[in-house]
Amino acid sequence: MHDLHVVILAAGKSTRMKSARPKVLHDLAGRMLIEHVLHTARALTATSTTLVVGHAAEDVKAALAGWTTLQFVEQSPQLGTGHALLQTESLLSAKKGTVLLLYGDVPLLSTGTLQRLLEAHHTSHAAATVLTTELADPYGYGRIVRDAAGHLERIVEERDASAEQREIREINSGIYALSVSHLFETLHRLATDNAQGEYYLTDLVALYRQEHRKVEALCVDTPDELRGINSRVELADMARIVRDRRNATIMLSGVTLQDPDTTYIDADVTIGIDTTVGPGVQLQGSTTIGARCTILAGCRLRNVSVGDDVTILDHCVLTDAAVGDGARLGPFAHIRPQSVVGRSAHVGNFVELKKTTLGTGSKANHLAYLGDAVIGDGVNVGAGTITCNYDGTHKNRTVIEDGAFIGSNSALVAPVTIGAGAYVGAGSTITRDVPAGALGVARGHQHNKEDWTSTRKTTTGAKPPEAQ
Ligand code: UD1
Ligand code: CA
Q1: What per-residue string of b and e applies to 15-48 under the rule 16 or more CB within 10 Å gives b?
Q2: Residue of the nearest CA to atom 22 in ligand 1?
Q3: How close is the Cα of 228 to the center of ligand 2, in Å?
Q4: What percentage of the chain has pLDDT greater than the value 90?
């Protein structure tokens, strides 16, 4: 067994992102760039994983606080990739085994490719194995220079390359398997006599060759995997690749995506079979969707758990909420955090729920605001109902017990309880509890003035409305 130590470089300043936020913290398909790399590394079950941070180090560390086994090393100032790896010397130089060097901004690399690299490295007993690929347009990358026998001789950076070397299409991915023995002492011998005045890790190859150590290159034909991200344009390109793959996996698992090109499904989302997802839907975070659901165009769900046989009509927004089996939502429903829509419940157009539980089979079909409310089973909430949950200082609770009926355009001034089976008359402003089984009515009484229009005409000369 070879101990595996993963080192990820992420200290560089990413000028081309034009961002106050460190590049590796930018979002790619629902995960930070660096998290894509960390997930890949995790699958390799390394003995240690070390992230070299420098630029905005504190931000990066804070954002990755949840990755408890990750070690951080600071590189300051940032003097090049060779210098960056050298910063791990105190952690790794006494170890045995292999260092796998990754970049924080190369997110698509697959675990399978890395396993192949490690296997090739161990089989050949090389001191260093470089992962390479051939690109139609190799501009910007280090070129792989091979000797007459085809052996890796050295790596030349774009800026240091001759016109002839620039013609080489095999490029350095920057990913390497490196044996720990002799690594750090050789890194100390890197020089800065190059166009950028940096300590290039790539020069390790030539140094090893001088010392007659074995260096190998593994050339793979999956260039997309090796692409790094330098700008927001590349970030969007990469996001499209991740999305396409993700959507293909989802469809192959038995889910219909009506328009995969406009469907955004984050990495950790799960969807049951025979669910249909319409165009322009975004399923984010830890969202889980059951089987046989329909989610129509333009919905966004973030950290939502949805049961089976649920229908969500167009343009609903749901966040940190749960929806029970057979429920029906939308169009244009807004389900805010800590809300629970019960089994077979209905939430219709322009209804907003906040921190509210709607019981089994209950309905709020049109134009309502239900906040800080506990609503039982079989409740009917009429159009225009509002829970007045905020008194300017506190958020107060509304309780509506099983089977109650709230007439349209009612204002329920919390804290207040509507008892089981009680009725609230339409247009009421309810400020006191309504007991179970009672009718609560709280609105102005209606007066009809008989013959009002003709009287008004004779006393003021005004015309009745129908004559205007
Ligand atoms: C590097 C390689 C190049 C390869 C390319 C692949 C060198 C000298 N060149 O070039 O052969 O084709 O990657 O993408 O290695 N970093 C630090 N500290 C530093 C400098 C860089 O941590 O002092 C990190 C960066 O944050 C980045 C990675 O190392 O994650 C690569 O650095 P970058 O400057 O982008 O190297 P390239 O010029 O692209
Ligand atoms: Ca780069």
Answers
A1: eebeeeebbbbbebbbbbbbbbbbebbbeeebeb
A2: 11
A3: 6
A4: 95
Amino acid at 198: E
Query: Which range of residues forms the domain containing residue 211?
Result: 4-226
pLDDT at position 456:
81
What's the mean pLDDT when you consider all of the chain? 95
Ligand 1 contacts CB of residue 80 (under 6 A): yes
* Residue 223, preceding peptide bond in cis (omega within 30° of 0): no
Average pLDDT on 58-80 reads: 96
Rounded to the nearest angstrom, the distance between the alpha carbon of 412 and the centre of ligand 1 is 61
Over residues 205-250, the pLDDT tens digits come to 999 999 999 999 999 999 989 999 999 999 999 999 999 999 999 9
pTM > 0.70 = yes
Q: Cα of 101 to ligand 2 centre, how many Å?
A: 14
- Say how many Å lie between the first and final Cα of the chain, rounded: 96
CATH code, 101: 3.90.550.10
Number of domains in the chain: 1
Question: Is residue 449 very low, low, confident or very high in pLDDT (cuts 50, 70, 90)?
Answer: very high
Q: Report the separation in Å between the CA atom of 423 and the middle of ligand 1, taken as the mean of its atom positions.
A: 70
Which two tokens mark 265?
């499904």
Instruction: Report which ligand 1 atom has the smallest distance to the Cα of 23.
Output: 26
* Atom number, ligand 1, closest to the C-alpha of residue 228: 14
pLDDT band at residue 14 using 50, 70 and 90 as cut-offs: confident
In a domain, 65, yes or no: yes
Q: Give the separation between CA 103 and CA 24, rounded to whole angstroms.
A: 10
Atom number in ligand 1 closest to CA 8: 30
Indicate if 394 belongs to the active site.
no
Does residue 164 lie in a domain region?
Answer: yes
Confidence band, pLDDT 50/70/90 cuts, at residue 131:
very high
Name the active-site residue from 26, 121, 366, 447: 366
Burial of 232: CB neighbours in 10 Å, binned 0-12, 13-18, 19+ = middle
> For residue 251, is it within any domain?
no
**Full 3-state SS string of 244-275:** HHHHHHHHHCCCEECCHHHCEECCCCEECCCC
332 φ/ψ sector (left φ>0, alpha ψ -120 to 50, else beta): left
Nearest to residue 429, comparing CAs of 416, 453, 406, 412?
A: 412
Decide if 466 is inside a domain.
no
| 464 pLDDT above the threshold of 60 | no
The pLDDT of residue 460: 65
Q: How confident is the model at residue 331 (pLDDT cuts 50, 70, 90)?
A: very high
